[in-house]
Design a protein that fits this description.
globular, 180 residues, alpha+beta, 11 strands, 11-stranded antiparallel β-sheet
Length: 180
C-alpha cells in the first residue's frame, strides 16, 4: 500500500546517503592537480568519521574524532596506530588540522595555527594522515579493528568492529583504489 511504498522510499534514500561514493573527482583549475575525494564515512558508535582525499599521487585520510575526554594538545603532531584484523599494527604520523574545546560552556575553535605556548584542552580533533602506497594496499585487503591516536602522550582509542565499520572502511579504500 501507500504507507509501505513511502517507508521503502525513505529507507532507500537513507541507505543511499550512507553509501560510500566518490564525492569529488576533478582537476583544480588553478594548480592542475587531480583531486579525488570519497564521501565521509560517518560512524555513530565510536564517534569517528573518515574521509579519503587524493591529490595527484598523494593519499591522505582525514579523521575526525569527537567526545574526547579533555586531552591537552601542545603541538600539531599526532601518531596513529591502526590494528588490522589479522593482528598486524600499522603506525602512521598525522597532523592536527582543526580542534575545538569547550571551557565553561563556551566553545573555542582553533585552526591549523596551533600555538605551542600553552596547552589546549580539546573535546574534538581533526587529523590528516598521509597514507603510503604499501599501507594503502594493506588497507584495501584487510579490515581495521581499532584505531589509537596519540597526542601529547594521551591515547584516544576507538574500536571499529561494531556496526561493520571495518568492512565499510575497507570498501572506502577499495573505492579510492578503483579511481587510480
Amino acid at each position: 500500500t501507500m504507507k509501505k511504498l513511502l517507508l521503502l522510499t525513505i529507507i532507500s534514500v537513507v541507505n543511499s546517503l550512507s553509501a560510500q561514493r566518490i564525492a569529488v573527482n576533478e582537476i583544480d583549475k588553478f594548480t592542475g592537480a587531480k583531486i579525488v575525494e570519497t564521501s565521509t564515512l560517518l560512524t555513530k558508535a565510536p564517534d569517528v568519521t573518515f574521509k579519503l582525499r587524493k591529490v595527484n599521487d598523494s593519499l591522505s585520510m582525514r579523521i575526525f574524532i569527537e567526545k574526547i575526554k579533555r586531552v591537552e594538545i601542545k603541538d600539531s603532531s599526532a601518531s596513529i596506530i591502526l590494528l588490522v584484523k589479522d593482528g598486524d599494527k600499522i603506525g602512521l604520523q598525522g597532523k592536527i588540522e582543526y580542534l575545538s574545546s569547550k571551557e565553561r560552556n563556551h566553545s573555542i575553535h582553533w585552526g591549523a595555527g596551533i600555538s605551542t605556548g600553552g596547552a589546549i584542552k580539546v573535546s574534538s580533533v581533526t587529523i590528516d594522515v598521509y597514507i603510503p602506497d604499501d599501507v594503502f594496499a594493506t588497507l584495501c585487503d584487510n579490515d581495521l579493528t581499532d584505531i589509537r591516536i596519540t597526542v601529547n602522550g594521551a591515547n584516544i582509542d576507538r574500536s571499529l568492529v561494531s556496526y561493520s565499520y571495518s568492512k565499510k572502511l575497507r570498501k572506502m579504500f577499495n573505492l579510492m583504489n578503483n579511481e587510480v
